[in-house]
């Protein structure tokens, strides 16, 4: 399977922050931003494998600076690394004050997606990626450590789930 340049998976989205997008602190709802993140990450994942994909995990969302109604919010995503059927997608969130033009990294996120066969729904192989820029190279080079941390966290989550009850509280 041919590899693709990371740049071929890039996706961009810019939105204005409206009052209905804000919480009681007058900043963008975290859940709204997480929805934007998952949406754009899914586009990068599909651009890599040109098939259906599903979110396997939201590895992290680090909220670094609040996003306010005077800001626009821009997201950039791209696939940084691949396994056999999975891919790591990095999402960078930039807020821009629309009055001053000041731009700040407001959040970063890593998500994992899995490629699926259109007919069987089973996992399918994905192409590898080729980094070109310094940013891409750094993310690609550090990805195996994050992949190992995901694997370990998933194992621990499965163990933990075994301790959880599924009873209704009124039973």
Molecular structure report:
- The model has no long low-confidence stretch (mean pLDDT 96).
- The protein has helices spanning 30-49, 134-161; strands spanning 4-5, 11-16, 52-63, 71-82, 86-97, 103-116, 129-130.
- A hairpin with a 5-residue loop joins strand 5 (86-97) and strand 6 (103-116).
- Helix content is 28%, strand content 35%.
- It is globular, with a radius of gyration of 18 Å.
- A 5-stranded antiparallel β-sheet has the order 2-4-5-6-3. A two-stranded parallel sheet has the order 1-7.
- By secondary structure, the chain is an alpha+beta fold.
- It has one domain: Hotdog Thioesterase (Thiol Ester Dehydrase, Chain A).
Describe the secondary-structure layout.
Layout: E1 4-5, E2 11-16, H1 30-49, E3 52-63, E4 71-82, E5 86-97, E6 103-116, E7 129-130, H2 134-161
Parallel strand pairs: 1-7
Antiparallel strand pairs: 2-4, 3-6, 4-5, 5-6
Salient structural properties:
single chain, 171 residues, alpha+beta, Thiol Ester Dehydrase, Chain A, five-stranded antiparallel sheet, two-stranded parallel ribbon, 2 helices, 7 strands
- Quickly count the helices: 2
| Physical arrangement of strands within the biggest beta sheet | 2-4-5-6-3
Distance between the termini: 53 Å
What is the arithmetic mean of pLDDT?
96
The string of secondary-structure elements, in order, is: EEHEEEEEH
Considering DSSP H and I runs of 4 or more, what fraction of the residues is helical? 25-40%
Which superfamily, in CATH terms, is the homologous superfamily? Answer: Hotdog Thioesterase
Based on Cα principal axes, name the global outline. Answer: globular
Strand percentage lies at 35-45%
> Largest sheet at a glance?
5 strands, antiparallel
Domain HotDog ACOT-type: 7-119
Family: Belongs to the acyl coenzyme A hydrolase family.
Keywords: Hydrolase
GO molecular function, one term: long-chain fatty acyl-CoA hydrolase activity
């Amino acid at each position: 399977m041919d590899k693709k340049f990371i740049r071929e998976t890039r996706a961009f989205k810019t939105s204005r922050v409206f009052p209905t997008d804000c919480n009681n602190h007058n900043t963008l709802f975290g859940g709204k931003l997480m929805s934007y993140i998952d949406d754009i990450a899914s586009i990068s994942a599909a651009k890599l494998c040109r098939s259906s994909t599903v979110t396997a995990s939201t590895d992290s969302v680090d909220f670094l600076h609040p996003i306010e109604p005077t800001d626009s919010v821009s997201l950039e995503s791209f696939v940084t690394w691949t396994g056999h059927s999975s891919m790591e997608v990095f999402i960078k969130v930039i807020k821009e004050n629309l009055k001053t033009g000041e731009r700040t990294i407001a959040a970063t996120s890593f998500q994992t997606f899995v490629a699926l066969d259109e007919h069987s729904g089973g996992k399918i192989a994905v192409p590898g990626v080729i980094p070109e820029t310094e940013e891409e190279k750094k993310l690609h080079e550090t990805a195996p450590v994050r992949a190992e941390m995901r694997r370990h966290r998933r194992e621990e989550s499965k163990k933990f789930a075994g301790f959880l009850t599924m009873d209704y509280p009124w039973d």
